[in-house]
Amino acid sequence: DARVTQTPRHKVTEMGQEVTMRCQPILGHNTVFWYRQTMMQGLELLAYFRNRAPLDDSGMPKDRFSAEMPDATLATLKIQPSEPRDSAVYFCASGLVRPAENIQYFGAGTRLSVL
Amino acid sequence: AQKITQTQPGMFVQEKEAVTLDCTYDTSDPSYGLFWYKQPSSGEMIFLIYQGSYDQQNATEGRYSLNFQKARKSANLVISASQLGDSAMYFCAMKKYTGNQFYFGTGTSLTVIP
What we know:
The complex is a heterodimer. By secondary structure, chain A is mainly β. Helices cover about 0% and strands about 55% of the residues of chain A. Chain A contains no helices and 11 strands. The mean pLDDT of chain A is about 90. By secondary structure, chain B is mostly beta strands. Chain B contains no helices and 12 strands. In chain B, strand 5 and strand 6 form a beta hairpin. Classes of the chains: A mainly beta, B mainly beta.
């Protein structure tokens, strides 16, 4: 049963601390997306990778957020330093680039609380 | 500009009845895909169904079907024979064939009543 795996599922941290979220995309998928979900803003795209290369990170606050794919099986999203307004659920999704049908499969999310 | 509109913040349906969740979209691009996702209270986002803009027939996946009306730019999700486990948030999304961005609606909360 192929699925996107995200760790940790929950994270509570104090303001100013570094937070690292990890994502293992579905084997064979060549696109990875990071989203943030809040009640106020809904789902926001933070970053998008294709074949491990970052193609779009315009939705990400550059001063504190960074996203990388060190290899095809791991994507990371880091926040340094974290702030209370970063509290949200962070989703990773993976898929295949096709002319059509670019279905994204989501992980279970990381629920981040910054105190 | 809002690309995806879900006008029903909350819906109720009796168990075993059918329910339609509305979704309208806005694009001038002729090539796009439409998606529905389910988010239960546990939080994960579950892919349900896909419809391509060039598909001649409405997509179906088990109890889910997508009522695609291209001229009206609507892509309503129909759930037949509702079950208690269908209670969740449902998100409509669109992606153009070109570009990276998925556009998500604000979601509809569905509650199935026993």
